[in-house]
Amino acid sequence: MDALEWLLFLCIYSKVTQIAELSWTADVPNEVKGLLGSCVVIPCSYNYPDPQGKAKSFTGIWMTTEGDRVIYHPTQSKIVKQYQSRTKLLEDASSKNCSLMIEKLQQNDRGPFYFRIEIEGYDRASYRKNKVSISVMGEPNPTDFSVQEEVKEGQTVSASCSVSHSCPTYPPDFHWSHPGVQHFQAQKLQNGQWNSTSTLTFRSNRTDHNKSLQCRVTYHEGKHQETSKTIQVKYAPVNVKVEYQSDMNEGETAHLKCSSDANPVSSYEWHSEAGALLNKGQTYTMSNVSRHSEAVYCTAVNEEGRVRSSTVKLNVLYAPDIKSSSKCFSERGKVMCECIVESRPPSMLHFVLGDRVVQNSKVQTVGSVTTGTLQTDFGSFKFVHCLANNTLGNANLTLSLPLVDNMQNIFIASGAGVIFLIVLIATGVGVVKKWGRSGETPTSDLGIMKAERSVELHHYAPTKRKEDRKDMSCSDIYANDHVYGNVGISNDFINNSFIMCMHKQSE
Ligand SMILES: *[C@@H]1O[C@H](CO)[C@@H](O)[C@H](O)[C@H]1NC(C)=O
Ligand SMILES: *[C@@H]1O[C@H](CO)[C@@H](O)[C@H](O)[C@H]1NC(C)=O
Ligand SMILES: *[C@@H]1O[C@H](CO)[C@@H](O)[C@H](O)[C@H]1NC(C)=O
Ligand SMILES: *[C@@H]1O[C@H](CO)[C@@H](O)[C@H](O)[C@H]1NC(C)=O
Ligand SMILES: *[C@@H]1O[C@H](CO)[C@@H](O)[C@H](O)[C@H]1NC(C)=O
Ligand SMILES: *[C@@H]1O[C@H](CO)[C@@H](O)[C@H](O)[C@H]1NC(C)=O
Ligand SMILES: *[C@@H]1O[C@H](CO)[C@@H](O)[C@H](O)[C@H]1NC(C)=O
To answer: Is residue 182 one of the residues assigned to a domain?
Structure first.
């Protein structure tokens, strides 16, 4: 062999050994962190020279470097007790993937370990140089929790929670304390570590303000970890309301306070119902309140908005005040009295005729105004009294009864009156003629009108009524309903009485 041949041989030989050495390789990390009690996966890949069809079956084995104890073998019985039923190859050994999973990791599962392959009908190899240790951790790695801690109401909150672990077969489970859309993501890191991330997105709401958002991570076989952050949600004022003592007496001082729920805290403004700015600040003092005191409202203001309270009107209490528009009047022949009272609380109303309380015909209350209506037989009274009282006091007003239409009133009051009126006019004309001859009474219809007025005057002299009964006074005729109500009474009697009256009154 010459020098050249020798060199060529060397060159070829080294190439072959290089290829052979490269072929029997394994790739494992030096160290894998694992969580006590959980599972750990040792990532592993290996290689072997091409068996050129000689390979029949593959047996992947894992062993400890110290004492060569079998920690994994497809035949369970060959595994040392400590690791039995806790170890597993994740892929078929022929796939050149020798990743090993150890479950329920124990404190002394530290290793180091190495992989061995036995290829039936070809060769076998132990990758002793490629050893891996397990660093057993008592507690999981801290959770990386991130969230935008301050948001405006309605904005989307995006929170993410991520942990690193070494058990990709059973990744940790994430649980959020708030509903929302969840998204899970796993990312491979180095040395058998994985990054698992859960993101939660939801629309922020004021009800979330100052609440803690919690992310709970549960690892395979139970260990868990919780992290939380408080979220600040900015929102415009809500529940803007005025607190005040409702019932007050006139002249008292009212203290009004506005409150609201807002973030950041509201400032306040007070306005009259008409819109005039009254005060700035959470409270407003109204001195010397009266029934005329204006309604007010408050406005809560923060950087997110301005919100008005409802309008507040104090319920100022006062004694009855009988309005001067109260009156008695005649309408279509009927006399009616109307008494209008303003008070708070609403008053009780009575009419007093002489010394007798008469029942109201109608009482109506609208707000602070109470109107009592009386329609009755007023007899010969000239006045009626209206009395009003509430819890704060009382008032009275004397109303004059009208002097008109009484005659008409009486006639219309009875059906017989109409008939009688006709008879009256008919006979009256005759009477006038008779009297006309003697020259003592005025002629024509004028006489009747005069008589009517005189009768009314009598009507307002009640004391005389009783004594005059015997000689049938005019007031009896016109005032006493019974005379007209009794249809059976003789026409002659009425006629004569009337004649008498006319005679008497015209004097
Ligand atoms: C080996 O198998 C595991 C589990 O299926 C897998 O996660 C890993 O990526 C594989 N390794 C390679 C190098 O393909
Ligand atoms: C906040 O939540 C309440 C009740 O859950 C809901 O009525 C309201 O519309 C929500 N507001 C926003 C801005 O989502
Ligand atoms: C895990 O992944 C997430 C999302 O890709 C990233 O924000 C986070 O920083 C990663 N954590 C680690 C420990 O690598
Ligand atoms: C937030 O909550 C804490 C307790 O959970 C409480 O002390 C604090 O007053 C709250 N702050 C606001 C602005 O609501
Ligand atoms: C209170 O108001 C009334 C009218 O509403 C007024 O007559 C009175 O003088 C006021 N009193 C005080 C002390 O201001
Ligand atoms: C008004 O006075 C009468 C009699 O004194 C009494 O019974 C009634 O309760 C009073 N009404 C009110 C509203 O105070
Ligand atoms: C009517 O009011 C006056 C004072 O305005 C009072 O003196 C009188 O007693 C009152 N009369 C009745 C019947 O209440």
So the answer is: yes
